[in-house]
Amino acid sequence: MKADTQIVLGAIVASIAIIAGAVFLLGNDKRPKREILGAASMTIDKTFEDFGDMKGDEEKTAEFTITNTSASSVLRIWNVSTSCDCTFASVVINGQETGEFNMPMHMIASLKNWIGDVPTKQTAILKVTYRPKVMPVVGVVTRQVTFSTNDPKNETVEVSVKANVL
Which of 32, 37, 41, 65 sees the fewest Cβ atoms within 10 Å? Predict the structure, then answer.
């Protein structure tokens, strides 16, 4: 076999190995699948809060009430993340509060894989805290928090907070 043919065949084999490895790694998704989490229904009391004026060294927290409106299914919440390193979220269920969720790249692994169960007809509180001193800005800003649920009508929920940083 000629050297050129061997190089081409080697490149093809290496490419196939790289593609197969990428498919294996990227296909190994450990996030929960909705079909095994059941289906529930939920409401949220609001999706926006305006903090008004605030100083750069202040922090403010908004609370959003999530209600499991299902007759017999547990509402599951997961994949909580924020849009900016200056925004934090936590979830309170049955008096137990999680650690602080942040942008996925800044979160600890246990929170990345967290799943919260809200019993039938019960509520969870999503706390969203904005700390402008983490990423200093001046003026009007809006930050978001998103989370996933096993409610087919609310698979991904987004809430926002707004502030005028002085």
Answer: 65
> Could you tell me the CATH number of the domain that includes residue 116?
2.60.40.10
Q: Nearest 5°: phi and psi at 164?
A: -110, 100
Helices (H) and strands (E) in the chain, counts: 3, 10
Supply the pTM of this predicted model: 0.79
Looking at the fold, whether 75 and 155 belong to one and the same domain comes out as yes
Q: Give the three-class secondary structure for 91.
A: strand
Residue 26 has a pLDDT of 52
Phi-psi category of residue 94: left, alpha or beta, with phi > 0 → left and psi -120 to 50 → alpha: left
Q: Are residues 7 and 45 in the same domain?
A: no
- Summarize pLDDT for 16-47 with one digit per residue, the tens: 777 766 565 555 555 555 556 678 999 999 99
Enclosing domain of residue 103: 39-165
CB 157 within 8 Å of CB 101: no
